Amino acid sequence: MDYSRYTSLQVVRHTGGVVEVVMGRDGKLPVADHAGHGELADIWRDLDRDPEVSVIIVRGQAKGFSGGGTLELVGDMVEDFEHRARVWKEARDIVYNMINCSKIIVSAINGPAVGGGLAVALMADISIAARDARLIDGHTRLGVAAGDHAAIIWPLLCGMAKAKLHLLLSSEISGEEAERIGLVSMAVDGEALMQTAMEIAGKLSAGPQTALRWTKHSLNNWLRQAGPIFDNSVALEMLGFTGPEVREGLAAVRERRSPVFPAGAPF
Question: Which key words tag this protein in UniProt (predicted)?
Fold first, then answer.
């Protein structure tokens, strides 16, 4: 399988069928631009078809797991229907392609994990976070519904009460707290993050692949059941990109100030 077409992702092969998907460039916090967002959707299909892959580790760079979408990407979604429609499809594909990828996916989460990158971190089959990692779903802070993954999986992981608390407030969650509430599989000291991820991936790659993949497939039927909930959330997120709240939220990010959202709502 040739992965040379990917520009924002690097695929690193290890022994035993373990591969790393490394997001972003050395020395920088990974972010998703127009091309990168699409690559995050496509990579899981290619890895699923690759006969030399058994287990996937997905990680960011030393500065963190993900900084979310670029301001250019968000701005173009606000202004242009075609961009908004394309990102809607890619957001759905990221989630469904990870669910349907037969290979086990392990995420190694360090530093900030925001936006589409957070979706990848939490949709992984096993999520390992550094204790001081910072998980942030900032959709409502931007002025759009939390749509790119949260509705399909947060209530299953940490329960509805915690899901509403953190998604409605866009509050930051440490890796340690994320483990406590069940949002991630485990939290470890930062220096042990990649070693732990590699050890787990090694155990999985040495295991019975058919049994592991069919177990994943069966468990993920809980997520497939929630597909209509997820589809609705993504559609409402995209609808929000046409409204006034996201314009204020985006302006506040660009101007590095707190947003002042318009009062009231149409319904």
Answer: Lyase
